[in-house]
Write a structure and sequence with these properties.
7 helices; 3-stranded antiparallel beta sheet; alpha+beta; 10-stranded mixed beta sheet; 279 residues
Length: 279
């Protein structure tokens, strides 16, 4: 597979492996020396990951990953040290919840809310991830941070297991939602399953799998840089000048719409393009 042009990969992470392990397997299968991803999934999580290959890793910060969508399952009545089902159970409580009670409480979890990151998380303190402190027996609780939940919808509730469709801002922890929703209902809650189905404009339905790649099927999931970066396009006449790091003075630009049709002239001032002449 020539990844020089199609060097952004949408791939579905399987259950039970780390995000780093997935990247390493992709590197081996595609025979690329360098790769990186736009956002970690825990080993128990499945779903969409975006992997940049080769030189495209330099453009990861320009890929829009600010909004993410998950399908999660919460198990009520148990608390673990990791806030998910892979951790050690530290508390149990018999509980008889009903869907009407959950519906009343769940509205508190929409909009801009404050969330305390799990003690087992990649958030850092003094340059060290919190999960390393926790594994050493010194768990650290960080201050609450503001996140945004754009949508939280109940899909199913049975046997104290709640399935939700959640659309959230980058940096939101589904494990914390499980934990905090349990507390709001007067019990405990732990994340028992999670699948990421969207990142920005990218959908899990567009992703490939390790199995497809192993079979030599590269018809799905491979994109170019231009497919994933949503920024205005600027065409230069002297590409080598740009590649060599030479500044290009810009005063006015020709403006086209998405279909490539000329729509006017724009004047750039203070990092803002002002329409000067339009059709």
């Amino acid at each position: 597979m020539d990844t020089s042009k199609k060097n952004i990969l949408l791939i579905s992470k399987p259950f039970g492996i780390t995000s780093s392990e997935l990247v390493n397997r992709v590197k081996h299968l595609l025979n690329v020396r360098k790769a990186g991803h736009t956002g970690t999934l825990d080993p128990m999580a499945t779903g969409l990951m975006i992997i940049a290959l080769g030189k495209s890793t330099r453009f990861i910060p320009y890929i829009d990953t600010n909004i993410k969508r998950y399908i999660i399952q919460i198990q009520f009545g148990i608390e673990t040290d990791t806030d998910d089902i892979t951790g050690n159970i530290i508390n149990k409580k018999d509980v008889a919840l009903d869907i009407h009670r959950i519906e009343k409480v769940i509205n508190r979890f929409t909009g801009t809310i404050e969330q305390v990151p799990p003690v087992y998380s990649a958030k850092k303190l003094n340059g060290k991830p919190l999960y390393k402190y926790a594994r050493q027996g010194n768990p650290v609780t960080k201050s609450a941070v503001k996140i945004k939940i754009y949508k939280i919808k109940i899909i199913n509730f049975k046997d104290n297991r709640l399935v939700l469709d959640v659309i959230s801002s980058k940096g939101s922890y589904m494990r914390a939602i499980a934990r905090d929703l349990g507390k709001a209902l007067g019990t405990f809650g732990t994340l028992s399953a999670i699948t990421r189905i969207a990142v920005g404009n990218f959908q899990i339905s567009d992703a490939t799998t390790l199995e497809r790649i192993k079979k030599g099927d590269f018809s799905k999931g491979f994109l170019s840089i231009r497919d994933v970066i949503n920024l205005p396009v600027f065409i230069v006449e002297n590409a080598e000048q740009f590649r060599n790091g030479i500044d290009i003075a810009i005063d006015k630009v020709m403006v086209k719409d998405k279909e490539g049709n000329f729509i006017g002239i724009g004047k750039i001032k203070d990092n803002i393009m002002h329409p000067e002449k339009v059709i």
